[in-house]
Each structure stands twice: as C-alpha cells, then as structure tokens.
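1st attempt posting a full record on here, be nice pls
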Amino acid sequence: MHAPCTGVRRTARLLRRFSKGWVLAEDPQQTIRELRVLVVEYAKQETLEPLKGLGRYVAWGVAGALLLGTGVVFLAIGALRALQDETYPHLTGNWSWVPYAIVVFGSFLIAGLAWMARGKRKTRGGGER
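the predicted structure (as tokens):
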C-alpha cells in the first residue's frame, strides 16, 4: 500500500501517468473555463436539441389534429344537411331538432368508439400505462 502523494511527488507521478501526450494544466483557470464550455455544450446537446425535435413532433401533431377536427366538423354539417333534406316534410316544425340530435349523438358515438379503440391499442402492447 502506497502512502498518499503530496506536492512535487504527486505532480511527477501524474505526469508519468499521462506520458502519452496528457499533461497537467499550467493554467487551472483556463481548464475551468474549458470545462464550463464543455458542460454548457453538453447540456445544449442533451436538452435543447431533443426539445427542438419534440417541438416539431408536437407541431405536426397539432396541425394534424386541427385538420382532422375541421374535417369531422364538415362531415357532421354535411350529415345534418343531408338529414334535413331527406326528412323534409316529416321532421319540420316541432320536430326540427331531431336531425341535430341525431348528428350530435352520432358524433359522440364515433368519438367514444375512437376513444375505446385508442385505449385497447395501448393496453394490447403490454405496457403499464
């Protein structure tokens, strides 16, 4: 077992240990500045770049959701107009609310089925979410 090295012996030991081009820093402040730059660059690499990728992923998801939502609204309005045209003499007056109720009920039914299908797909993968 070796006694702890101090002072000149420790420096000589470290210089021998790093004889393949590694030397001790002559200016510790410069080493600290380089370490700080290295840590900052590493933090940017490991946090900011993945967040940028996540931002693009979220942007495409939001754009897709808005377009899909707009399409569903247009389909619901089209279904409402079709119901109103096809049931014209029968569902008028006090019964004019029925096509609206059918479209709202149908929209909620489709949304519920999509929600249930989403839940089944998640649990089928074996994850504990």
